[in-house]
Amino acid sequence: MYKIVFTESYDKRARRFLKQHPDLRKQYEKTLELLESNPFHPSLKLHPLKGRLRELHSVYINLVYRIVIEFIIQDDKIIPIDIGSHDEEY
Predict the structure, then answer these.
(1) Which domain holds residue 18?
(2) Per-residue model confidence as pLDDT tens digits over 66-85
(3) Nearest CA to 14 among 66, 82, 70, 61?
(4) Of the candidates 78, 76, 58, 77, which has an alpha carbon nearest to the alpha carbon of residue 68?
């Protein structure tokens, strides 16, 4: 089992995101639960990013929205960094 470590800055971004997209709350919560239990689950589409974000990974909330994460495997930690659409994040 992995542990999601939320930062104050991510919490602020997530609150703003959920305020703008209240219809995605269930999908968002399900994504976090799945991320904690099995970040390699195919539906999350965990993948490394490139370019200036190359040290980070991304998982899907749905086809449009993603969560950018720092994925620290050796400590079994997942640190959400940002949340938004593909264009907003990259």
Answers:
(1) 3-89
(2) 999 998 877 889 999 999 98
(3) 82
(4) 58
